[in-house]
Amino acid sequence: MSPIQHLPRRARALPALLLSLLALGGSPVSQAQSGISLLGGSCTGNAEQPIAEPGTGRTFVLDYPCDLQAGEPVLFILNLHGAGSNERYQRAYFPAWELKEQYRLVVATPHSPARRWREEDDAYLHNVVTAVIGAVGAQNIKAFWLAGHSQGGLTSRRLVCTPFFADKVDGFLSLSGGRLGGAAPRSPNAGRPAQAGATPAPTPAAGAAPAVAATAPAEPDCAFSHLFAIGEHEIASLPDTSTLATKYQCAARVRLEDVVDTEPGRTHDSGSQNPGTKEWGLLPRPGVAQVYEYPNCADGRVIADVVRMDKGHTEGLEPRIVETLVGMMDRAAGGRLQER
């Protein structure tokens, strides 16, 4: 992701000093810290003052309730950015941390210096998870979710059933990172738009072998809840069935009440607006999301799709749809870490 803009809503009411902090990746403190401290960090994370995990010394941003009490059950989210992006953008794109007091969330947002996730980052991610579990206590984590945007979603898909994560993770939220249970076909115009004045891609040499189309990875075979959120313009269509729903003996798909947001999301890709495309994403703006759920799944799992109407790949999620997704995560079955 190119340089980004993610000043908060109601920014005009904030002092200039706080605006400067937010532009650098900081966060407003939602309330004075009155509870326990996790890993020595402030309850509201700041990308300028991240936490180092001890194994590699690499850092991540941690958010947790400012009034968190010892022994209190929490929902833990590992929130992965996409390719070309960073932890600042991800905290603005999916700002679950804003709901940390209401839903008792602990949100770890890591960063890849390569600006994309690779297998060599796995040990670092393991260390982040281990550090948070150690600080909170496995017995106090009522559910653990992987969440990822774009390539962060693809990485979550790769990781969810690996030996380290398979006995810990209760759910996977894909934010434009691929749908499990039957892929949603991409829009023919999906992808980052070429920008005015940019160097054109080189023309393949005469006689060069054609590029081999990437094959879709196999679907993970362990058990977990799955939420898929996508911009309307990113896909050609949304499947109306799910093999995951069949696997978990869910009822037929139902459309829930639309989620209407009167406020925009926090961020967009400011470096891809000359020209921008509706498929890649334009400026943040209010919107409506359609929500489809396969209800009554076995063992309390939740399988659902969310389509953000008239949105693309990079506009940050609006506040009410963030809460809708977090609410689904909160009501899904959990407890895998507590059972270990």
Q: Give the biggest sheet.
A: 11 strands, mixed
Distance between the termini: 38 Å
Task: Specify the CATH class of the domain at 35-185 and 217-229 and 312-331.
Answer: Alpha Beta
Summarize the amount of helix as a percent range. 10-25%
Could you outline the blueprint of secondary structure elements for this entry?
Blueprint: H1 16-23, E1 51-52, E2 59-63, E3 74-80, H2 87-93, H3 100-103, E4 105-110, H4 122-136, E5 141-149, H5 151-159, H6 163-166, E6 171-175, E7 225-231, H7 243-247, E8 254-255, E9 259-261, E10 287-294, E11 303-308, H8 319-331
Parallel strand pairs: 3-4, 3-5, 5-6, 6-7, 7-11
Antiparallel strand pairs: 1-2, 2-4, 8-10, 9-10, 10-11
